[in-house]
Structure formats: structure tokens, C-alpha cells
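Researcher: Next sequence.
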Amino acid sequence: MERSWMPDKKQLTRLLLIFCAVFLVGIYVYQRREKDTIQENLGVTTCKITNASAGYRGGIQMKYSFIYNGKEYTGGRKYFISNAYADSFLGYSFPVAFDKNNPSQNTVLLLPADFHEFNLDFPDSLEWVVILDKKSL
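Model: Next structure:
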């Protein structure tokens, strides 16, 4: 009797783990490469939060826009700050780091770690965001 190739549960588990690991490494490499290109051609300006809503699985999903060389660019980012504070961000302006050669690659800067990633000083004026972040733990 001819038997078709059917992996057992152990093999399926291994394949799934390998796939997940490759997928996660791919995401990390993509995000790191994007941040590296922003760092190489770093521009910083202010953006305005245009939408702040409850994110999938908690946190706040933020949409923002900024103007560079007369053109409007948009971006989005999720922060694991309690979504109860979403309205606290709507309409406010925050720094945004972007690639001067490709401004569509950008990221809003809210927390000290964001600023540290680009070797920028965290402004005292954003201390209220740190307080909300700590309340969210």
C-alpha cells in the first residue's frame, strides 16, 4: 500500500515554529532597516495626531500627519498606553522623525525610548506622556 507523505504532530509543530521564527525575524529586520534609513537621513519636525483610538488587543493606535517641503505625509503607530487615554492625544503636536530622502518612512516620538533610538534628548514638555504610560502598567 502506497502511503502519502503526512507529517506527524511533532513535525508539524517544528515546521510551525520554524515558520513563526522566520516570520518574526523578517519583521524585525524590516523594522530595523527602516529605522536605520531614518537615522542616516534624519529629519525631525512636528506632527499632529489626527486619530487616536483603541488598538487591537489594547493600547492606542495613533494616526498622524506632518508637512515637509510643502507636502503632507502621514503615519501611524501603536503605543501600549491604556486606550482610556486615547482622547488625551487627539489634536496634539509631537515630534516626528523621518527620512529626509523618503519622508513616508517616519515615526512619531512620544516616549524617552523613542528619542533615545535616534540619539535625541527627551523634552520635559512630554513628561505627561510618561506619566500616562506608567499609569497604564
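Model: The chain has a mean pLDDT of 86. The CA atoms of residues 48 and 93 lie 4 Å apart.
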